[in-house]
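ARCHIVE CARD
Drawer: 12
Card no.: 0347
Subject: one protein chain, sequence and derived structure
Cross-reference: see card 0346
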Amino acid sequence: GALSAVVAEVVPPARHRRARCRVVLRHAGGAEADTTFLGPAGAPTLAAREWFAGEIRRWLAADRQPDASQLAPDPDAAPGGQVVDVSAWAAAG
Protein backbone atom coordinates (compact mmCIF):
# COMPACT_ATOMS: atom_id res chain seq x y z
CA GLY A 1 0.00 0.00 0.00
CA ALA A 2 3.00 2.36 0.07
CA LEU A 3 3.53 4.90 -2.70
CA SER A 4 7.32 4.81 -2.48
CA ALA A 5 10.18 3.49 -0.39
CA VAL A 6 13.65 4.61 0.61
CA VAL A 7 16.34 2.12 1.56
CA ALA A 8 17.89 3.78 4.58
CA GLU A 9 20.49 1.12 5.50
CA VAL A 10 21.86 -2.17 4.17
CA VAL A 11 24.29 -4.33 6.13
CA PRO A 12 25.58 -7.59 4.64
CA PRO A 13 25.67 -10.72 6.77
CA ALA A 14 28.77 -11.91 8.56
CA ARG A 15 29.54 -15.02 10.55
CA HIS A 16 28.53 -13.24 13.77
CA ARG A 17 25.94 -10.78 12.40
CA ARG A 18 22.64 -11.11 10.58
CA ALA A 19 22.00 -9.29 7.32
CA ARG A 20 19.77 -6.26 7.73
CA CYS A 21 17.98 -3.87 5.42
CA ARG A 22 16.09 -0.86 6.76
CA VAL A 23 13.37 0.54 4.49
CA VAL A 24 11.17 3.58 5.04
CA LEU A 25 7.82 3.16 3.28
CA ARG A 26 5.98 6.35 2.36
CA HIS A 27 2.19 6.23 2.20
CA ALA A 28 -0.39 8.66 0.83
CA GLY A 29 -0.86 11.63 3.11
CA GLY A 30 2.79 11.61 4.19
CA ALA A 31 2.63 8.74 6.69
CA GLU A 32 5.84 6.69 6.92
CA ALA A 33 6.50 3.16 8.16
CA ASP A 34 10.03 2.29 9.21
CA THR A 35 10.68 -1.43 8.67
CA THR A 36 13.91 -3.32 9.25
CA PHE A 37 14.33 -6.74 7.66
CA LEU A 38 16.70 -9.22 9.33
CA GLY A 39 18.17 -12.08 7.33
CA PRO A 40 20.43 -14.94 8.32
CA ALA A 41 24.03 -14.65 9.47
CA GLY A 42 26.72 -16.21 7.32
CA ALA A 43 28.90 -15.55 4.32
CA PRO A 44 27.82 -12.59 2.16
CA THR A 45 27.58 -14.66 -1.02
CA LEU A 46 25.72 -13.58 -4.13
CA ALA A 47 23.14 -16.31 -3.55
CA ALA A 48 22.54 -15.13 0.04
CA ARG A 49 22.12 -11.51 -1.09
CA GLU A 50 19.73 -12.51 -3.88
CA TRP A 51 17.65 -14.66 -1.50
CA PHE A 52 17.41 -11.85 1.05
CA ALA A 53 16.47 -9.23 -1.56
CA GLY A 54 13.93 -11.59 -3.12
CA GLU A 55 12.26 -12.33 0.21
CA ILE A 56 12.04 -8.62 1.02
CA ARG A 57 10.37 -8.00 -2.37
CA ARG A 58 8.01 -10.93 -1.70
CA TRP A 59 7.13 -9.55 1.77
CA LEU A 60 6.42 -6.10 0.31
CA ALA A 61 4.29 -7.56 -2.49
CA ALA A 62 2.29 -9.67 -0.01
CA ASP A 63 1.04 -6.44 1.62
CA ARG A 64 0.24 -8.12 4.91
CA GLN A 65 1.53 -7.70 8.42
CA PRO A 66 3.74 -10.39 9.93
CA ASP A 67 2.50 -12.24 12.98
CA ALA A 68 4.31 -11.93 16.31
CA SER A 69 6.53 -14.97 15.65
CA GLN A 70 7.99 -13.21 12.63
CA LEU A 71 8.85 -9.99 14.45
CA ALA A 72 12.17 -9.65 16.21
CA PRO A 73 13.49 -7.37 18.93
CA ASP A 74 16.33 -5.23 17.63
CA PRO A 75 17.98 -2.47 19.68
CA ASP A 76 19.27 -0.85 16.46
CA ALA A 77 15.81 -0.45 14.90
CA ALA A 78 14.20 2.95 14.58
CA PRO A 79 11.89 3.89 17.46
CA GLY A 80 8.36 2.87 16.59
CA GLY A 81 9.52 0.79 13.64
CA GLN A 82 8.96 -2.91 13.14
CA VAL A 83 11.63 -5.55 12.64
CA VAL A 84 10.74 -8.49 10.41
CA ASP A 85 12.71 -11.72 10.71
CA VAL A 86 12.76 -12.62 7.01
CA SER A 87 13.88 -16.20 7.70
CA ALA A 88 10.90 -16.81 10.02
CA TRP A 89 8.52 -15.13 7.57
CA ALA A 90 9.81 -17.21 4.64
CA ALA A 91 9.57 -20.44 6.66
CA ALA A 92 5.95 -19.68 7.55
CA GLY A 93 5.04 -18.79 3.96
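Annotation on reverse: Helices lie at 46-62, 86-92. The CA atoms of residues 71 and 84 lie 5 Å apart.
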